[in-house]
Design goal:
With 367 residues, the protein is of the alpha/beta class. It has eleven helices and 15 strands.
């Protein structure tokens, strides 16, 4: 299969037929719900050759659909007689509403019905992640966002979640796996572990980093001693222009030592609070370190980011993880809605017309 190009948000991702590396056991029904496997056998042996239409939708308003390319590749890989199937679908990154069909498959049930639950799962996971990322980006109001979602779930979710993150508009990710399907690479600098190995010496850790990567400017994790303002100034004085940014990652269970001698009765000083960031920016600027950017992470979600960007808290980049991938909000359902060209569905379901669905060619290289 030839390479194809997908343009997403002004970027180009190069995909091939090897993009989606499926487990071969899918062909044996290893991941399919057992009752779909039984239905497959019953239909194949006793009720063959009925042409059905299966329709997929979800119930959330204003979601960003994702996983369609993957689901179509799954069908083309594992369905029986895939060239005989007629598939209509939206595109990854399209905004959808509740109960809107995103995918329709027409063909013999015994050729593809056993894949229903896998398609549901792919669409649910990818759409949830893409929607979460999309909403965080709206809340960020143009402030860059960095995905730190690699540590928030099983490592096997990184590749697909990274693709959904990219579709929604973020190309700064932590691991190569997150960028695998679209050609991205993981980026990052210093973890707490490096500082610990340097016996808590932030300057020694920073010098070690710059010695190992002399062509990079440093972004330093700065909350190791829970004294963000003091340590940021200490490091800025030592490194000068080599210090690109400081990342504040204070735990929600801690109050930074900056507040030790200050009245905090009017706000919650725990974790990465606005007052700490205002103080950090003011102190850096006072000493002439306007070039040092501030990155924040630790428990940031769309609500907190929305509040901060409305107020104009001086943050240059938000690091987000948990709220991207541990917030599954878009569950998909596949229903049979047509039988041999006539409407046939369970009560409450029906074939929903759509002018947005586009016919998907087989083989896929003709896209």
């Amino acid at each position: 299969m030839e390479e194809i190009e997908l343009k997403k948000h002004g970027k180009i991702a190069r995909l091939t037929n090897k993009t989606f590396k499926f487990d071969k056991r899918i062909a044996d029904g290893f991941y399919s719900a057992n009752y779909f496997l039984k239905s497959h056998e019953i239909v194949k042996k006793l009720l063959p050759n009925h042409v059905v239409t299966m329709q997929f939708f979800q119930r959330r308003e204003s979601a960003m659909v994702c996983g369609l390319d993957e689901a179509i590749a799954l069908i083309h890989t594992f369905a029986h007689r895939p060239k005989d199937l007629e598939i209509y679908a939206l595109e990854d990154g399209d905004m959808i509403e509740a109960n809107e069909p995103v995918l329709k498959i027409t063909g013999r049930y015994e050729d593809f019905g056993f894949l229903e639950s896998l398609i549901d799962g792919i669409l649910a996971r990818r759409t949830s992640v893409a929607t979460n990322v999309h909403e965080v980006l709206l809340a960020a109001r143009g402030v860059p966002v960095f995905s730190m979602a690699d540590r928030q779930d099983d490592y096997l979710t990184q590749i697909g979640d990274g693709y959904a993150t990219y579709v929604a508009g973020i190309d700064r990710v932590s691991t190569d796996a997150q960028g695998y399907w679209w050609g991205g690479k993981g980026v990052g600098t210093m973890p707490h572990a490096l500082i610990e190995i340097c016996d808590g010496d932030i300057i020694k850790a920073s010098e070690a980093y710059l010695k190992a990567y002399p062509n990079e400017k440093l972004t330093a994790l700065i909350d190791y001693h829970n004294n963000v303002v003091r340590d940021s100034l200490l490091l800025a004085r030592h490194l000068g222009d080599k210090l690109n940014a400081v990342r504040v990652d204070t735990s929600k269970s801690l109050v930074d030592h900056y507040f030790d001698d200050k009245d905090t009765s009017g706000f919650d000083p725990h974790g990465v609070c606005k007052q700490l960031i205002y103080a950090l920016r003011a102190e850096l600027d006072k000493e002439g370190y306007q070039h040092v950017k501030i990155i924040v992470s630790s428990s940031f979600n769309k609500e907190k980011i929305d509040e901060w960007t409305k107020e104009g808290v001086p943050v240059d980049t938000y690091g987000v993880g948990t709220s991207f991938v541990n917030n599954m909000t878009c569950g998909f359902t596949g229903d049979l809605v047509m039988l041999d060209g006539k409407p046939q569905a369970k009560e409450g379901r029906h074939n929903i017309p759509s002018t947005r669905l586009k016919k998907v060619p087989y083989p896929i290289e003709s896209l």
